[in-house]
Recover the amino acids of this structure.
C-alpha cells in the first residue's frame, strides 16, 4: 500500500531519466580532473578562461588521436607540474592523502564501540530521584492512571 | 564637536554599566536556582509524558513490539512513582524546615519579650 | 566626522566587550549579581554602538567618501546606490564589522532567552560570547578597520568586485556569515552551563536545542544560497566544487546536524551529556575555521578575497578556543555522567550515535582534504591540489551511508527494540530500495553508483512515508477523516514530524545532486548567428548577439530561440560581461528550469565574427535542490514550534512557601 504511493513518486522523478549516452563523456571526465593553472582552484571544465578552453581542445584532440587517460594526464603534469591534477596521484607523498580517510573510518568505528560499551554499562549516578523508593502498590496505581491519561489524549 | 561626540559615545555606555553597580540593581539575579529539585522533577515529568506519547505512537505504527511497549510503560510508571515520592519527600522536608524556622522565630520573640520585661522591672 | 564617530564607536565597543567578559566572569564566579547585571546591560549597548559604526560606513559609501580606504577599495563613482549593501561586506574589514554587529544582536537575543531560565549559567555564557566579540572587535580595531582613512584621497574608487553584483550576493554572504557566527550561541549556552557545574543538569538543553536548530537552519540556507549562486553565476553548470571555503562552511554544518540529533537524546533521557559537549566544541571550532579560511587562509580558492596575515590570528584564537574548551570539559567531566544507560543497540538512541559518528567522519575527511595541500606544501614542499575527484570517492560513500541511516532510522523506536523486530520493520524500506533499483535499471539507468544511490534514496523515501501513512491510518481507526488524522498526527508530535519534513528536503537535495552529477549532458559548441543546434529534443536557434557598453563593463548578450519538441519555450539571453578595470569575465547563465530538468546556456568564449563558443547543459532534477530549501525551513520551524503540554493532573506543583514573620 505504502509502496504504491512511493513507487508512484519515484517513477515520476525517474521519468526524465536521461539516458547516459553522450559523446565527449570521456573528455568531460578528464576535464574535471585537470585544474586550470591560472585560475585558483577551478577545473578546466569549470573555468571559462581562454587557457582552460585551449586545454579542453587539447584533451579532445589527444583523445581523438588515441592517447590514453594516463598519457594525457602525464602530459599536463610535465608541462605544469603535479599540482595541475585535481586528484593527487596515488604515489609518493600523495599516497598519504588516500590512506588517511580509511584510518579515520577505522578510528571512528573504534570510538563508536568504546562509547557504546561505556553507555550500556549500568551506572551509579547521583540521580536525585534515587532516594525515593515508592512501594509496589504506588507503582501500579500510577501505572493505571498513566494508562488512563494516554487513552484520554 | 567631535570631542563632544567622543564624550557621549564613551560616557553613555559607561553610565549604563555603572548604574547597576551603584544602585545595587539585580539582587534577585541569582535568586532562582535553575537546578532546584523542583525544576528537575518537573522536567523529568515532562520527559515521562513525552516518552509515553512516543511509545504509544510507535506502538500504533507497529515499530514497537508488545513486550517492549509493556516494558516501557512499566518503566515510566516506576519513574512517575519515584517522581511523586521524591516530591512528597521534598514537601515533607520543606514543611519540617518551615516549622523549625517558625519555632526559632517564636523563641526569639519570646526571649526579646522576656528581656524587655526584666528591663522594665529594673 | 561621521567617520570619526564610527571609529570611536568601534574603539568603545572593543573596550566595552573586554569589560563585559571580565565583569560577567567575576560576577559569575564570586556570585556578585550587580556585576552580572552590569555586564548584561553593557551587552545590550553594544549593538547600538556598532550600529553607529555601520551607519558611518554606509554614509561614507553613499556620499562617495573615498578618503575612507574601505570605500575606495570597494566602490566607485559609477556604482549604483543599491550595491552599497553588498559593498558593506564585500571586503575583509567590512565583513568583519558585519559579523560583529550581527553577532552582537544574536548575543543579546541569546542572553535574553536564557537569563530568566538559566540564571546561574548565564554569566558564563555571557563571558564566552563577550570573549568572541572581543576577538572580532580587537581585529577590527587594530588590524582591519573599515573606517580607516587614506593619507591621500583618490579621485575615484576601485569599484566593487563584479562577481558580487548579482542578486544571490545580496543574501548568500550575509546569511552564510550569520550562520557561521551563530554557532557560538548554542556553544556558549552549553559550555556556560558546564562551567557553572550544570552541564549534567540538562536545564540548558531545551534552549540549547532551539538555538542549535536555529543555527543549523541559517547554515543550511547559507550553503544552499551559495550553491544556487554558483550555479547561476559562475557559469560552469555546477553548484559545488569542494573548494576549501565551501568545505569550511560545510564542516560546521555537518557537526551541527549531528548535534541537533544527539541533543534530543539528552533532552529525553539525560544521556550523551559528555558526547554533546564534545560535539558542540567541535562544531564551534569548525565554525571559527570557517571564518578563518574565508579571511584568506593559506589555501588558495575562488573565495579568497582577502589575503592577509590575520588568518594566523584566527588560527591562534581557534586553537585557544579548542584547547580551552577541552580542558574545561575534562575539568567538569564528573558532572557530565549520564543519567540513564543505553538499553539496547536497536534503539533510536544508538542510531543517533551512529549517525553522529558518520557525520563526524564526513567532517574530518573533508577537513583532511582541505588542509592536506597546506601540509604537503609546508612539510614536504610539494604542491598538490585536492579537488572533486578526491571528495567524490572518499566522502561520497559516507554521505550515502548517512542517507541510508536516515532512511531506516525512523524504524528504530526510542529506548529499545530487538533485532528481530528491527529486521521485520526495515523489510519495507529495503524492499522499496530494491524495487527502486529494479525500476530505474529498467528505465535505462545503468551506472552502478547511480543505481545504488537512487536505491538508497528509495529506502529513505520509504522510511519517511511509511511512518506518515501508518501513523495516519492508526488514527483513522478512531474514526477521524484522513486529513484531520494526518494533521493531528503531525501537530501532536512536532519535533518528530518536523524532522521528517526536513528529511524529505534532504532527500530532494540528494535526488537532485545524484541526478545532476551522473546524468548531465554537456556540450561546448561554436555557433554563429543564424545557426541552430539540437540537444536531445531541445532545439536552439542563435538569432543574434548584441553588445552593450556600460561605464565599467562590456556586455555580450546572446539571443536564442528555444523549442522543445514542438513546444515553443521562448527566448533565452545568456550574457557575458567583461569588466575592464578588474579584467574579470562574469557570466550570467540563461536557464529554463522545470522540475524535470534545467536547460542551461552560457557563453564561454567570444570570437570576433559575432560567433561564440556556448556551453549547453541539460541538468536533470536540479530544480528539486532549490525546492528543498523552503521544505527544510518549514520542517525546522515546525519542529521548533511549541506544543501544548499535556495536562499535569498527576503532578501538583509545590507552591513557593514564604516565611511568615
Amino acid at each position: 500500500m505504502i509502496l504504491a504511493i512511493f513507487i508512484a513518486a519515484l517513477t515520476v522523478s525517474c521519468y526524465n531519466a536521461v539516458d547516459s549516452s553522450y559523446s565527449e563523456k570521456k573528455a568531460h571526465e578528464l576535464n574535471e580532473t585537470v585544474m586550470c593553472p591560472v585560475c585558483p582552484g577551478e577545473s578546466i571544465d569549470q573555468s571559462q578562461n581562454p587557457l582552460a578552453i585551449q586545454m579542453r581542445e587539447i584533451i579532445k584532440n589527444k583523445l581523438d588521436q588515441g592517447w590514453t587517460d594516463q598519457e594525457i594526464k602525464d602530459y599536463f603534469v610535465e608541462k605544469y607540474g603535479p599540482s595541475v591534477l585535481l586528484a593527487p596521484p596515488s604515489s609518493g607523498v600523495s599516497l598519504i592523502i588516500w590512506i588517511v580517510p580509511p584510518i579515520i573510518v577505522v578510528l571512528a568505528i573504534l570510538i563508536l564501540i568504546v562509547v557504546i560499551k561505556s553507555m550500556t554499562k549500568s551506572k551509579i549516578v547521583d540521580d536525585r530521584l534515587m532516594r525515593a523508593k515508592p512501594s509496589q502498590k504506588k507503582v501500579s496505581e500510577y501505572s493505571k492512571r498513566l494508562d488512563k491519561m494516554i487513552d484520554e489524549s | 564637536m567631535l570631542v563632544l561626540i567622543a564624550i557621549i559615545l564613551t560616557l553613555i555606555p559607561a553610565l549604563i554599566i555603572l548604574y547597576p553597580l551603584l544602585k545595587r540593581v539585580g539582587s534577585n539575579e541569582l535568586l532562582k536556582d535553575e537546578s532546584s529539585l523542583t525544576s528537575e522533577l518537573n522536567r523529568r515529568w515532562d520527559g515521562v509524558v513525552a516518552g509515553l506519547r512516543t511509545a504509544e505512537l510507535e506502538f500504533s505504527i507497529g515499530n514497537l513490539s508488545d513486550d517492549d511497549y509493556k516494558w516501557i510503560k512499566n518503566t515510566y510508571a516506576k519513574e512517575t512513582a519515584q517522581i511523586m515520592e521524591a516530591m512528597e519527600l521534598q514537601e515533607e522536608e520543606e514543611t519540617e524546615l518551615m516549622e523549625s524556622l517558625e519555632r526559632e522565630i517564636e523563641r526569639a520573640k519570646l526571649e526579646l519579650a522576656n528581656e524587655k520585661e526584666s528591663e522594665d522591672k529594673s | 566626522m561621521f567617520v570619526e564617530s564610527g571609529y570611536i564607536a568601534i574603539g568603545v565597543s572593543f573596550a566595552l566587550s573586554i569589560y563585559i567578559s571580565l565583569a560577567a566572569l567575576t560576577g559569575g564566579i564570586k556570585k556578585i549579581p550587580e556585576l552580572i547585571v552590569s555586564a548584561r546591560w553593557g551587552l545590550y549597548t553594544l549593538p547600538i554602538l556598532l550600529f553607529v559604526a555601520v551607519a558611518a560606513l554606509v554614509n561614507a559609501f553613499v556620499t562617495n567618501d573615498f578618503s575612507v580606504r574601505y570605500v575606495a577599495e570597494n566602490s566607485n563613482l559609477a556604482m549604483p546606490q543599491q550595491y552599497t549593501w553588498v559593498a558593506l561586506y564585500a571586503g575583509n574589514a567590512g565583513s568583519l564589522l558585519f559579523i560583529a554587529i550581527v553577532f552582537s544582536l544574536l548575543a543579546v537575543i541569546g542572553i535574553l532567552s536564557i537569563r530568566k531560565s538559566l540564571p546561574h549559567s548565564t554569566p558564563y555564557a555571557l563571558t564566552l560570547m563577550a570573549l568572541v566579540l572581543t576577538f572580532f572587535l580587537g581585529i577590527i580595531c587594530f588590524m582591519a578597520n573599515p573606517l580607516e582613512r587614506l593619507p591621500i584621497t583618490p579621485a575615484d574608487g576601485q569599484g566593487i568586485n563584479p562577481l558580487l553584483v548579482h542578486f544571490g550576493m545580496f543574501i548568500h554572504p550575509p546569511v552564510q556569515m550569520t550562520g557561521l557566527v551563530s554557532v557560538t550561541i548554542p556553544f556558549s549556552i552549553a559550555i556556560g552551563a558546564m562551567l557553572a557545574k550544570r552541564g549534567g543538569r540538562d536545564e540548558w538543553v531545551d534552549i540549547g536545542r532551539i538555538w542549535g536548530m536555529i543555527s543549523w537552519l541559517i547554515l543550511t540556507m547559507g550553503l544552499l544560497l551559495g550553491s544556487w549562486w554558483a550555479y547561476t553565476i559562475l557559469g560552469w553548470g555546477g553548484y559545488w566544487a569542494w573548494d576549501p571555503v565551501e568545505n569550511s562552511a560545510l564542516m560546521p554544518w555537518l557537526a551541527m546536524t549531528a548535534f541537533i540529533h544527539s541533543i534530543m537524546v539528552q533532552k529525553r533521557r539525560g544521556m550523551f551529556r559528555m558526547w554533546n559537549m564534545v560535539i558542540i566544541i567541535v562544531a564551534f571550532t569548525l565554525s571559527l575555521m570557517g571564518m578563518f579560511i574565508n579571511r584568506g587562509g593559506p589555501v588558495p580558492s575562488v573565495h579568497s578575497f582577502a589575503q592577509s596575515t590575520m588568518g594566523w590570528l584566527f588560527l591562534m584564537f581557534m586553537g585557544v578556543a579548542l584547547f580551552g574548551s577541552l580542558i574545561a570539559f575534562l575539568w567538569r567531566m564528573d558532572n557530565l555522567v549520564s543519567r540513564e544507560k543505553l538499553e539496547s543497540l536497536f534503539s533510536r538512541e544508538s542510531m543517533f550515535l551512529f549517525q553522529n559518528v558518520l557525520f563526524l567522519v564526513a567532517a574530518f575527511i573533508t577537513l583532511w582534504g582541505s588542509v592536506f595541500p597546506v601540509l604537503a606544501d609546508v612539510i614536504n614542499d610539494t604542491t598538490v591540489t585536492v579537488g572533486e575527484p578526491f571528495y567524490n570517492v572518499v566522502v561520497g560513500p559516507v554521505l550515502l551511508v548517512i542517507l541510508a541511516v536516515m532512511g531506516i532510522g525512523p524504524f528504530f523506536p526510542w529506548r529499545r527494540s530487538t533485532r528481530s523486530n528491527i529486521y521485520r520493520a526495515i523489510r519495507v524500506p529495503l524492499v522499496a530500495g530494491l524495487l527502486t533499483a529494479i525500476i530505474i535499471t529498467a528505465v535505462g539507468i545503468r551506472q552502478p553508483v547511480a543505481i545504488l544511490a537512487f536505491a538508497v534514496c528509495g529506502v529513505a523515501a520509504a522510511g519517511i512515508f511509511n511512518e506518515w501513512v501508518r501513523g495516519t491510518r492508526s488514527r483513522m481507526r478512531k474514526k477521524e477523516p484522513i486529513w484531520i488524522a494526518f494533521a493531528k498526527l503531525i501537530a501532536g508530535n512536532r519535533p518528530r514530524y518536523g524532522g521528517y519534513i526536513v528529511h524529505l528536503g534532504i532527500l530532494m537535495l540528494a535526488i537532485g545532486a545524484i541526478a545532476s552529477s551522473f546524468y548531465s549532458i554537456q556540450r561546448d559548441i561554436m555557433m554563429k548567428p543564424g545557426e541552430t543546434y539540437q540537444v536531445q529534443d531541445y532545439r536552439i536557434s542563435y538569432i543574434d548577439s548584441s553588445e552593450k557598453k556600460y561605464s565599467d563593463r562590456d556586455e555580450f548578450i546572446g539571443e536564442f530561440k528555444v523549442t522543445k519538441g514542438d513546444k515553443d519555450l521562448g527566448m533565452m539571453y545568456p550574457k557575458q560581461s567583461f569588466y575592464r578595470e578588474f579584467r574579470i569575465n562574469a557570466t550570467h547563465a540563461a536557464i529554463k528550469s522545470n522540475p524535470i530538468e534545467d536547460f542551461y546556456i552560457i557563453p564561454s568564449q567570444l570570437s570576433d565574427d559575432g560567433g561564440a563558443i556556448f556551453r549547453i547543459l541539460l541538468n536533470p532534477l536540479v530544480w528539486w535542490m532549490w525546492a528543498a530549501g523552503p521544505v527544510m525551513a518549514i520542517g525546522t520551524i515546525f519542529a521548533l514550534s511549541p506544543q501544548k503540554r499535556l495536562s499535569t493532573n498527576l503532578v501538583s506543583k509545590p507552591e513557593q512557601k514564604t516565611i511568615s514573620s
